Amino acid sequence: MAVPAFGASGTLGAASTGTSISPALPSRAAGNLLVGIVATKNNATHTWPAGWTKVSQTNSGASWTVSWAWRIATNTAADGPPSVSWTGSVANTGQLWTYTGNDGSAPIGAASAAATGTVSPHTSTSITSTRDSSLAIYLDACATNTALTTPSGYTSHVSSTSATSVTAINSGDKTVTASGTATGAISTAGGAAAWVEIQVEILSPFSVLGMFSEHPVTMDVRRAVEYK
Predict the structure, then answer these.
(1) How far, in Å, are 182, 192, 213, 217 from residue 178 at the CA level?
(2) Dist. CA 46–CA 91, nearest whole Å
(3) Is the pTM for the entire model greater than 0.85?
(4) Cα separation of 101 and 112, whole Å?
(5) CA atoms of 163 and 166, how far apart (whole Å)
(6) What is the pLDDT of residues 185-224, one digit of tens each?
(7) Contacts of 186 (CB under 8 A, 6+ apart)
(8) CB count, 10 Å around CB of 150?
(9) Could you list the residue range(s) of the whole structural domain that residue 61 is in?
(10) Domains held by the chain: number
């Protein structure tokens, strides 16, 4: 079974003012999962373009809001750097990155409620995996340009700061072998400013064979599936 893994990140986008941002696309292959974060120093609604699934948007205080979205890459011009817009010209930032080995139709499993705060450390609550061989990731965006420490057991892949927008975007991951496993709450030391942090499960491809247990009644069915 394929196991989701970090692929590549695009260049951080950042501006001291503006009403939209188009983060650069990372290198990718058709079927890879594209994940994007956009953050602005206001509470205006972020509008992601068609083809992207906006999962959530969370305000932290009156002048920091973070949205994230995903798309299955086609590796064609249809992907395009997404233009995310809002009302009110403010400092903003955004970044895209990819994962490989993901479910190609419904790649997102469990997700925690977004945690918010204004001081260090940044925290997020545990999620419970819903499929074997998942990848647990954390997403964090902060309204100051200070990178986060990496939680125990995780590998940091995205740690981007900008003096232009005075912001930071961070993400890391760890493999979760078995369905029903708790990832555990995490705490990351970093910027003492408004922040949003979320844990998310990225699913491996669904396996029909994984539905069958190793006992005589179902083994015949399993063998029939394998034979085909």
Answers:
(1) 10, 35, 15, 24
(2) 14
(3) yes
(4) 22
(5) 5
(6) 999 999 999 999 999 999 999 865 554 444 444 444 444 4
(7) 123, 124, 138, 151, 154, 197, 199
(8) 17
(9) 5-227
(10) 1
